[in-house]
Amino acid sequence: MTEAAATTELSLATVARVHDITTMFHAFVYFASEAAEEYAAVGVGGPSGYFASRSAPLGPVSAEVVTATFYNFSPDLVGSAIDGTWEIVSPEKMQRARWRAVTRILESTVADAVIDVDVSEAIDVAESCVAGLPYAGRPLAAANASVLSRLDDPAFVDNRLLRLWQLVTILREWRGDAHIGLLIAEPLDGCECTVVSEHLFHIPGVIRSTRAWSEDDWSKAVDRLRSRGWLDDDGVTEEGRVKRGLIERRTNEIDAVVWNGMTDAAVNRFGDLLEPAVEALTVGGYFAAVGRPPPEEGT
Description:
By secondary structure, the chain is mainly α. Helices cover 64% and strands 1% of the residues. Strand 1 (231-232) and strand 2 (235-236) form a beta hairpin. The N and C termini lie far apart (46 Å).
């Protein structure tokens, strides 16, 4: 299947909606104490846990490769996190630690919120999509697809929720790899796209602090964006919003290939199958760090 070969015209609103749901179903592990515990158990702590666990499917790659693949993190942060880490733990052990963390969270938070038949239906859809994807130019998605067979290990083989999580991770990283290609083409470099996101999203300081760009890097990126009409004294300009919107729209258009041959109703059905899990994770407090706290009792 080529990327121009989608046979069904999907609503981009549907693609965007299901992207939001799959992102949340994937991303809870980044904010979880269970993940920090599992990474510490194999000798990895702090930011190294995030970078090593997410890049583990790529193998023992250098900080430069992780910086290039993740795109919007400060090279200094990635270097301090990755340099020497593969001397402490192998990528395979780090991958297993990540899966153990995901398993703990899903079993304690999600298992009672979803029924087995819905999990099986979602797996069938996700496996069909993953099997039909082209991976050229998408290193992180391809790497995550390459480790899928390791879930046949006796430690993980019977965990259907974990399998669903890994499949959704492939879909999520596939879209992310494409999005980075569009940022490069704009061009918006890693710091510049972080500056724009910091201005657009209503979680002040969170994006900037986690990407760890220096004051000098940040200031220079702001100056470049001002000179190109993206920013002014009031923040992102109308021109900048239009350009950012076009990148998101094109990302959704490319991402529609994931759902090749599926109708809007079928794609939305997949999102519906994952929503109870996302709601359970929200109630569990896994997204509080990104501005989605658990609902107050009685609401």
